[in-house]
Amino acid sequence: MAEAATGFLEQLKSCIVWSWTYLWTVWFFIVLFLVYILRVPLKINDNLSTVSMFLNTLTPKFYVALTGTSSLISGLILIFEWWYFRKYGTSFIEQVSVSHLRPLLGGVDNNSSNNSNSSNGDSDSNRQSVSECKVWRNPLNLFRGAEYNRYTWVTGREPLTYYDMNLSAQDHQTFFTCDSDHLRPADAIMQKAWRERNPQARISAAHEALEINEIRSRVEVPLIASSTIWEIKLLPKCATAYILLAEEEATTIAEAEKLFKQALKAGDGCYRRSQQLQHHGSQYEAQHRRDTNVLVYIKRRLAMCARRLGRTREAVKMMRDLMKEFPLLSMFNIHENLLEALLELQAYADVQAVLAKYDDISLPKSATICYTAALLKARAVSDKFSPEAASRRGLSTAEMNAVEAIHRAVEFNPHVPKYLLEMKSLILPPEHILKRGDSEAIAYAFFHLAHWKRVEGALNLLHSFRMIPYPLEKGHLFYPYPICTETADRELLPSFHEVSVYPKKELPFFILFTAGLCSFTAMLALLTHQFPELMGVFAKAFLSTLFAPLNFVMEKVESVLPSSLWHQLTRI
């Protein structure tokens, strides 16, 4: 009985809600009926005739001013809507109507209405969105002093945003500091230097840390237990100070390499000492973890210096040795540096071997992985591939594999083809990238465009996919393309770069509406100014045609209802 009563109440409630939803139409017709009935007491006909007489006395100059003012206002609204859309990706009028007017009119938010039924699905999608929009360290990032700063000196533009440099500062504090740094003066200085925003202050702090290590200090360490013989030791060199100077003060790659070699000597010694003490407590373990990060970073940057200076085979050897020595440190993505160097050597068999290890379904993908795999597949068929011949005879197995590989790569990051096909100009890549975003596409194309050009016909094969990714929004091979990439890329990329947006947003309705209204009213103002009499005749004809259906309905209503209905109602 209780369940039946509950069900009846739910049905009754739904019926009441439904009736109130459409009750406004009933009220609308009631108001129209009352206006018609009360047209005589309210003198509606007399007022309409007075208004029409007033409009007939107006000169064409009034209409010119009216249409001109309307055109000006709608033009200002159009400019504001266009600016707001370019900056925030949405219409201001639409956003205000959805956020403020919709609740007042009784609208229900879809998200709140479905919270109880789809909480698990929403949480899964939120977790996926967070993972998809995570910002990653660019494994191929340039050197600030030798490359980014030189660009600023030449062009006067800042290639790095504050948000990007702030993320780098956080990375440096995570990788290059530990809780025991306050016990060593040089490391304590560097701990503050990584937090410093001013580049000159950071460089000065690094020099100060190195000067402290040049001073001899008496360290009371007995050579033999219970002995009175003491040892005078030099404080160990500060490897992180050399890293900062190599990254930010060195103006050439050769200078940076020299500083990194000095950092390697200091970092290797610290790593060996902390390796022996790592099991003596959590403090020593944290220090060893820090020294490991420092050593891996130094060796990786030395390999990148060798690659920049043309010693590619040496760079490949250094990267391979580093990956063998520290196989678990995948956060640096050293395999992407190795792939780029191997492509420069045209060692395609070695590239395929690296892809076989890292292009796994359980590992996170990147544009370097997907597009390098597509390049190798395209290399096998691109020199003989012809769209016309393929349409006649069909695709072979190798061509089908190449097309599927390119399809997969374009679905993962749809921004890359614009840069590889040189449909959009490149800029210096940022220090951090967003996977599947425009920042990752810039970082990939900046180093790999030459490799695609070297393979004959590969860009022609990619050119057939230039209209993608519109069919790929549903996500056939990967998760659906995240909607948060545009906002994150605008934070990572400089303001002078036009961010590539996917999927391409159509212009909002209100921009098109205001553009049409502005154009139409401006045309009316011009025509009324040039041909006042002709436009007056046209306006009268248009208004008479517009009100003809209403007059027809009024005549039919008057023929049905008696004219003395109001007097009869007053008598009652």
Task: Offer a few descriptive terms.
572 residues; two-stranded antiparallel sheet; 26 helices; single chain; mainly alpha; two-stranded antiparallel ribbon
Give a brief description.
It is a multi-pass membrane protein. The protein is mainly alpha-helical.
Can you walk through the features of this model?
- The chain has 572 residues and is mainly alpha-helical.
- Helices cover 68% and strands 3% of the residues.
- The chain is built from 26 helices and four strands.
- It has helices spanning 2-37, 44-57, 60-88, 92-104, 110-113, 119-132, 144-155, 162-176, 185-193, 199-214, 239-249, 253-277, 282-308, 312-325, 334-344, 348-358, 367-379, 387-393, 397-412, 416-420, 438-454, 458-463, 485-492, 509-530, 532-560, 565-571, and strands spanning 135-137, 217-222, 230-233, 432-434.
- The strands form two sheets. The protein has a two-stranded antiparallel sheet with strand order 1-4. Strands 2-3 form a two-stranded antiparallel sheet.
- Helix 10 (199-214) packs antiparallel against helix 11 and helix 24 (509-530) packs across helix 25.
- The longest helix is centred in the first third of the chain and has 36 residues, at 2-37.
- The radius of gyration is 36 Å and the shape is elongated.
- The model is unreliable at 105-131, 216-234 and 467-475 (pLDDT under 50).
Number of helices: 26
Could you give the order of the helices and strands? HHHHHHEHHHHEEHHHHHHHHHHEHHHHHH
Regions with little confidence, pLDDT below 50 for 5+ residues: 105-131, 216-234, 467-475
Give the DSSP E fraction (strand runs of 2 or more residues). Answer: under 5%
**What spatial form do the alpha-carbon principal axes imply?**
elongated
Q: Sheet with the most strands?
A: 2 strands, antiparallel
| Biggest sheet: strand arrangement | 1-4
Spatial separation of the terminal alpha carbons = 50 Å
Work out the radius of gyration.
Answer: 36 Å
What is the typical, i.e. mean, pLDDT? 76
Keywords: Membrane, Transmembrane, Transmembrane helix
Family: Belongs to the ST7 family.
InterPro entries: ST7
Pfam families: ST7 (PF04184)
